[in-house]
Amino acid sequence: ASGLKLLPESLQHGFLHRLDVPSSGLLFCGLSHKAFYELKLLLAVGRVGREYLVLCHGLLAPQRLEAAVHWKDAGGAPTRCGRGKPSLTRLREAAHGFLQGEAVSLLLVALGTGRRHQIRAHLAFAGRPVLGDGKYCAQETYRRDGRWCTQNCLHRQRLRLPGLEATAPLPAEGCGFGRLLQALRAKDAASAVLLRRVLATGAA
């Protein structure tokens, strides 16, 4: 992502949220005190839409994933337990296919909540981790993923505010997410339709 020197934190300007490293996509940044707090309020009341393209291991159908996410410490991965924060991830569309014989799913994902690593944690909890995810994949799986990608196949493609929408196509450079989609062999006709749509525009 292109860099932006933030003003002192006490002035409350700057980025309102983050992207998991290493991922790609859009970010909101408040360039003034007023804009920062207006965006912060919209986030708090659920008026900001966030959509992602994700490539994960295995076949996964559109569904709601709800599992509380709890962080034990700053450096580890989250766990699911009773005292975790309620979290909702919506898998809106799915294209199923194969990469060199391995089943994968291209997902259009929307966030109901915005917990740290939420999509990655929920997909791992469902047994379908994101391709190239060194934190949530088994070590051997992550090593094999290195044949295809060098970072998470997770891209924030769209942000929505009331009266405003921004879309970012898959980056031409980077981990090779777009290149992997070109090599993906669709499993069925419906999957082929979604895959063609993403390949044509870089977004769903």
From TrEMBL:
GO molecular function, one term: RNA binding
Domain of life of the organism encoding this protein: Eukaryota
Listed Pfam families: PseudoU_synth_2
Gene3D superfamilies given in the database record: Pseudouridine synthase
Boundaries of every Pseudouridine synthase RsuA/RluA-like domain copy: 12-124
One GO term (biological process): enzyme-directed rRNA pseudouridine synthesis
CDD domains, sorted: PseudoU_synth_RluA_like (cd02869)
Entry similarity comment: Belongs to the pseudouridine synthase RluA family.
Name of the featured protein: Pseudouridine synthase RsuA/RluA-like domain-containing protein
